[in-house]
Write a structure and sequence with these properties.
The complex is a heterodimer of chains A (155) and B (664).
Chain A (H helix, E strand, L loop, with lengths): L1 H15 L7 H10 L17 H15 L4 H12 L14 H26 L16 H17 L1
Helix pairs in contact in A: 1-5, 2-3
Chain B lengths: L7 H25 L2 H30 L6 H6 L6 H6 L5 H22 L5 H23 L25 H16 L1 H13 L5 H4 L2 H25 L10 H26 L3 H24 L14 H21 L16 H33 L7 H24 L7 H24 L5 H29 L5 H11 L1 H21 L5 E7 L4 E4 L2 E12 L3 E12 L2 E6 L2 E5 L4 E5 L1 E4 L3 E10 L5 E9 L2 H18 L9 H8 L1 H5 L1
Antiparallel strand pairs in B: 1-10, 2-3, 3-4, 4-5, 4-6, 6-7, 8-9, 9-10
Helix pairs in contact in B: 1-2, 1-6, 2-5, 2-6, 5-6, 5-7, 6-8, 7-10, 8-12, 10-11, 10-20, 11-12, 11-14, 12-13, 14-15, 15-17, 16-17, 17-18, 17-19, 18-19, 19-20
Classes of the chains: A mainly alpha (155), B alpha+beta (664).
């Protein structure tokens, strides 16, 4: 199950990831989009407009240029500013539920909808002698046929 | 003599008394089926609105006259605050925004029940009771823990002023629109509850509130887009949506309300999904109030901290009462909410709407879950965690793309049933457009699966929706009209359907703009005067800095020359300002916008020696987000101009089904 959640998370991120860039500033920008800002509540380091955040972003660029990996940089920020800077819960451990629950809810909802749709689609048998066109008069029928012929002729 | 500003507190006390009276009278009138008592309740609610309006006028007067003896005025305004922002401070803080919310609630409620007064008194009575109950809750907050009329002593010479980020034209329109959306949903919610409580379970509740639902959804939609535009032009991070808890709070009810707008069509046309529809409107209103709770409780970390206060705990029992009470009422009426029809086939527009509803609600759940998970984690493990944009993008975007696919498929499928051959015929062109788009982008080097999927689906949906206009127009062409007249006739004869399609086209344009973010680039550099930096094809040169001061702030305008391939394009002038009252720096963004891309420049700091730290972004296709919003607005206008359907009662339906009997 844990592997499934990890694979789901990785696949989703990979699907939505922008085209990869190699420049240190691009790598640093991408890292800052995956770290919550210690200086602005509720937004990523990338989006935080304070000068402290700008300094930390600059520090990340330097770390990238110095050869630190993405994982090492995120770990450094986490050690420095706390676990709340991690922008996504770890798919391992209890964090698995964060990733799985929306998918489970969507699939559950789809299953319930499918169940009802199939039940509603079972049309009850028509009573004997039922004629769906019984209430259409002969003149209405002629007019309808003429309009349909005209419409089909045009298209 | 009592000044107008001094009338605020007593007015709120009178308003709460009248709201309680309206609640008591409306409940009694509805239970005893006494129209006279229900009419009294209506007048009491209107009186409550009158007193809330007086209290609002009183606070506006205090803001306008810089009456710093009121704590609220001292905290959210100052003598140097410019013009309209002085009055926008009404919703700049927690207490004032609650007063504004209550003004809208009692005003909308009075209008809705006055228009519905000719209906069944039991129905009207319950609608009044629900609205008066909600108003009472907010008014109790306003006379108690969140009063905007608390006095301050000693009286300061000047106020703290409005947060600099809020001093933007967006402040004048974004919050009122969001509040109108949130509060507007109280009308369909109250009428749905009234239908359930009075046992009047025909179409009355949703036909009589259709315009309110559309208005609220429209206000919320425009409010959300304007919030994005405000963030984009004001906050200086080059984006428009950050999945902040307060942004999510406005987005969740929008998602469920959008699901409701679609599923209610099935109830109207096929008399199905009755339980689902009342549940959706209940969820929408509960989520709207939940959003208010999130914004004001401070329970989650948000950049929108300016509206926080100590009233969060008051909301939890109110939310629980609404949710549990609403669900219990629905369960009690389940036997009378059965579907009157069945699906004729699984491949039908009804099924597409059902799938669309599942996806919208799943999307709302995903956003809710990601928003509240930090609280859940803290309660269960004691550790404060974060759930940020990477989670929401990963979980929400695939669902959104599936919704986009259904936006294209829905109009192609007919009501009741459709043969496979007919479906294949109509879907051919949209699929072709999608494939050509994906192939074209791949040839030009786009290799992100997500981006290709988004653009492919945009092409698919756009062609599907435009095809509907063409098919509709052909019918009028057969009468000899030219294409323009034929399209006008098509839209004007069925404004609801084609207004909806115009909204869908707007959504496609917005998605194109959002998908463009995949090609975004960003650079930052510390530039001396005369220094240059490159971003994409552009060269930015720091040409000059102009410094000046007003009573409110020190303004630093940095002139940045923009050139491309040696050709001078323009000069951008971002600012880095310092607000004296708040002791806070703030950046003003400069943007060169074109349909292809935005060049977005912000000064993040200026060194004492004059060197400027520049952050520059190239944001491809962002322009289309705002164009899409404009198209959506056009569609909304068409939708709002469509005639309201007449409520169909059980008796009328029987007569329609059995015309011969009825004639005889």
């Amino acid at each position: 199950m844990r592997k499934l959640a990890g694979a789901f998370a990785a696949l989703s991120i990979a699907l939505m990831a922008p085209v990869a860039h190699a420049a240190p500033q691009d790598v640093a920008n991408d890292i800052s989009m995956h770290v919550m800002s210690p200086f602005c509540p509720g937004v990523t380091l990338h989006d935080c407009p304070t000068e402290n955040a700008a300094e930390l972003r600059e520090r990340i660029v330097v770390m990238v240029e110095d050869g630190f990996t993405r994982g090492q940089i995120i770990e450094f920020i986490e050690n420095e500013y706390g676990v709340a800077t991690r922008a996504t819960p770890d798919p391992g451990g209890a964090g698995i539920i964060v990733w799985l629950l929306p998918g489970i809810a969507a699939l559950g909802g789809a299953a319930v909808a499918w169940h009802f749709a199939r039940r509603w689609a079972r049309v009850p048998a028509r009573p004997e002698g039922y004629d769906p066109d019984a209430h259409i008069t002969a003149s209405d029928r002629r007019r309808l046929d003429a309009e349909l012929r005209r419409f089909q002729g045009e298209t | 003599m009592v000044s107008l500003a001094g009338l605020g507190g007593p007015s709120l006390v009178a308003a709460v008394v009248f709201a309680i009276a309206a609640l008591a009278l409306a409940t009694t009138g509805a239970l005893r089926d006494r129209p006279a008592i229900a009419a009294g309740a209506r007048r009491a609610l209107i009186s409550s609105f009158g007193f809330v309006a007086l209290a609002t006028l009183s606070l506006l007067t205090a803001l306008g006259s810089h009456d710093f003896s009121l704590d609220y005025v001292a905290r959210y305004s100052s003598r140097s605050l410019e013009g309209a922002y002085t009055f926008a401070a009404l919703w700049g803080g927690m207490e004032g925004s609650l007063l504004f919310w209550t003004l809208l609630l009692t005003g909308f409620g009075s209008l809705a029940i006055t228009r519905a007064r000719s209906r069944d008194p039991r129905f009207g009575g319950w609608a009044t009771a629900v609205l008066a109950g909600i108003a009472t809750f907010f008014l109790v907050l306003l006379v108690g823990p969140a009063t905007p009329f608390a006095e301050l002593s000693p009286v300061p010479a000047d106020g703290s002023g409005l947060n600099p980020l809020l001093q933007s034209p967006g402040m004048l329109i974004h919050p009122p629109l969001l509040y109108s959306g949130f509060v507007g949903f109280s009308i369909p919610f109250a009428f749905a509850m009234a239908g359930l409580l009075s046992g009047r379970l025909d179409d009355t509740w949703f036909t009589s509130t259709r315009r309110w639902t559309l208005f609220s959804w429209s206000a919320l939609s425009i409010g959300i887009v304007l919030g994005g535009a405000w963030a984009y032009t004001e906050l200086g991070w080059g984006g428009y949506w950050a999945w902040d808890p307060v942004e999510n709070a406005s987005f969740m009810p929008w998602l469920t309300a959008t699901a409701f707008l679609h599923s209610v069509v099935i109830q109207e046309k096929r008399r199905m999904l009755k339980v689902w529809n009342v549940t959706l409107i209940l969820l929408t209103y509960v989520l709207a109030v939940f959003g208010t709770f999130l914004t004001r409780s401070g329970i989650l970390s948000s950049i929108h901290t300016f509206t926080e206060g100590p009233i969060g705990k008051w909301f939890l029992p109110f939310l629980a009462l609404m949710l549990i009470g609403g669900l219990a009422t629905i369960v009690a009426r389940l036997d009378r909410l059965r579907s009157e029809n069945r699906f004729d086939a699984l491949v039908s527009r009804e099924s597409a709407f059902l799938a669309n509803n599942v996806l919208f609600v799943a999307a709302a759940f995903a956003v809710l879950w990601g928003t509240i998970y930090p609280i859940v984690a803290e309660v269960t493990s004691g550790v404060r965690l974060s759930v940020g944009p990477p989670f929401f993008n990963s979980v929400f975007v695939p669902i959104a793309l599936a919704i986009l696919l259904l936006t294209g498929i829905g109009p192609l499928i007919s009501w009741r049933r459709m043969s496979r051959g007919a479906f294949t015929r109509v879907v051919r062109a949209p699929i072709g457009a999608g494939i050509v788009t994906v192939a074209g982008l791949a040839v030009f080097g786009v290799d992100s699966v997500g981006t290709l999927t988004a653009f492919g689906l945009c092409a698919f949906t756009a062609v599907a929706v435009i095809g509907e206009f063409v098919r509709g127009g052909r019918v009028y062409r057969m009468r000899g009209e030219n294409w323009f007249d034929a399209l006008v006739s098509t839209v004007s004869r069925n404004r609801r359907r084609y207004g909806g399609y115009v909204v869908h086209l707007g959504i496609v344009l917005i998605v194109i703009g959002l998908a463009g973010a995949a090609f975004k680039s960003e650079r930052h550099a510390l530039l001396e005067r005369g220094g240059s930096m490159r971003i994409g094809d552009y060269t930015l040169t720091y040409e000059d800095r102009i410094q000046r001061e007003t009573s409110e702030k020190q303004i630093n305008v940095v002139d940045i020359g923009v050139s491309r391939g040696g050709e001078e394009l323009t000069t951008l002038s971002p600012q880095r300002n310092f607000h004296f009252a708040q002791g806070q720096p703030q950046s003003e963004v400069a943007i060169r916008t074109t349909p292809a891309e935005d060049l977005y420049v912000v000064v993040t700091s200026i060194d004492p020696d004059g060197a400027a730290a520049i952050r520059a972004f190239v944001n491809p296709l962002t322009w289309w987000i705002w164009v899409g919003a404009g198209v959506m607005l056009g569609g909304i206008a068409i939708l709002l101009s469509s005639p309201v359907p007449v409520a169909v009662t059980g008796r009328v339906r029987r007569e329609v089904r059995e015309p011969a009997v009825a004639v005889r």
